[in-house]
């Protein structure tokens, strides 16, 4: 693995009206990572992204390496564009910090994974996720890392868009802190020890 900087992006929609939505769980995970690092987010704009800020960022050390030393350098980023235009800020940050695609980690909600589970992969399809689709287009590759936070499928005949743009149900809200904590752990393990070790831990756990 490279010793270079990482870019960890939490997908979601901007504004307080969306903050608790299922679609914003990726940004909840980024908030937890920033809390652990003791580094608050700040807006980035100017020549980096555009004339107005398009991402809130925090420069941190992620996790803990061997012997208790601070983990690798990383930029945590929460795009302030809407989900379907996430790619521009991601690509701009990757260029600015000279982060290759295999060091870009997208943290996002995943319908095809049961609520409470976390899965990791590199590359592959976007599964209809507009934030990932726009990121793939902007980066020019699918070969970036994904930490997929399970939100499950909508009940009955509920429309998918309505489901992801609603807050978690009350029973889920009780478990949500544990899910966010697990996903943050998954990001730290991915960055410090690699994809295979992270997959081994999070893909083989028993309920």
From TrEMBL:
In Pfam terms, one family for this protein is: Pept_tRNA_hydro
Q: Where does the UniProt annotation locate this protein?
A: Cytoplasm
- A single GO molecular function term of this UniProt record: peptidyl-tRNA hydrolase activity
What is this enzyme's class at the first EC digit? Answer: hydrolase
Quote the catalytic activity from the record: an N-acyl-L-alpha-aminoacyl-tRNA + H2O = an N-acyl-L-amino acid + a tRNA + H(+)
Active site at 23 (proton acceptor)
- Site location (Discriminates between blocked and unblocked aminoacyl-tRNA): 13
Which PROSITE patterns does this entry report, sorted A to Z?
PEPT_TRNA_HYDROL_1 (PS01195), PEPT_TRNA_HYDROL_2 (PS01196)
SUPFAM superfamilies linked? Peptidyl-tRNA hydrolase-like
Q: What is its EC number?
A: 3.1.1.29
* UniProt site (Stabilizes the basic form of H active site to accept a proton): 109
Keywords recorded for this protein, A-Z: Cytoplasm, Hydrolase, RNA-binding, tRNA-binding
Q: Where does tRNA bind?
A: 18, 82, 84, 130
Q: Which residues form the signal peptide?
A: none
- Name the Gene Ontology biological process terms: protein quality control for misfolded or incompletely synthesized proteins; rescue of stalled ribosome
Q: Which GO terms describe its cellular component?
A: cytoplasm
Cited NCBIfam families = pth
Instruction: State the protein's purpose.
Output: Catalyzes the release of premature peptidyl moieties from peptidyl-tRNA molecules trapped in stalled 50S ribosomal subunits, and thus maintains levels of free tRNAs and 50S ribosomes.
> What family is it from?
Belongs to the PTH family.
Give the multimer and partner information.
Monomer.
Q: What is this protein called?
A: Peptidyl-tRNA hydrolase
Its taxonomic placement starts with:
Bacteria, Bacillati, Actinomycetota, Actinomycetes, Micrococcales
**Gene name, Swiss-Prot/TrEMBL:** pth
């Amino acid at each position: 693995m490279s010793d270079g900087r990482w870019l960890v992006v939490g997908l979601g929609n901007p504004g307080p009206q969306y903050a608790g939505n299922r679609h914003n769980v990726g940004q909840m995970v980024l908030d937890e990572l920033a809390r652990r690092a003791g580094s608050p987010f700040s807006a980035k704009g100017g020549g980096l992204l555009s004339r107005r800020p398009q991402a809130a960022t925090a420069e941190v050390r992620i996790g803990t390496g061997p012997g208790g030393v601070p983990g690798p350098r990383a930029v945590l980023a929460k795009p302030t564009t809407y989900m379907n235009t996430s790619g521009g800020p991601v690509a701009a940050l990757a260029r600015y910090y000279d982060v290759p695609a295999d060091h870009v980690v997208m943290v996002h909600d995943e319908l095809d994974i049961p609520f409470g589970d976390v899965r990791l992969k590199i590359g592959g399809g976007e599964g209809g996720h507009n934030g990932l689709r726009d990121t793939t287009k902007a980066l020019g590759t699918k070969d970036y890392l994904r930490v997929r936070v399970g939100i499950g499928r909508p009940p009955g005949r509920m429309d998918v868009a309505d489901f992801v743009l609603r807050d978690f149900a009350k029973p889920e809200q009780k478990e949500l802190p544990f899910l966010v904590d697990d996903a943050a752990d998954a990001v730290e393990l991915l960055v410090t020890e690699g994809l295979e070790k992270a997959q081994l831990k999070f893909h083989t756990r028993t309920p």
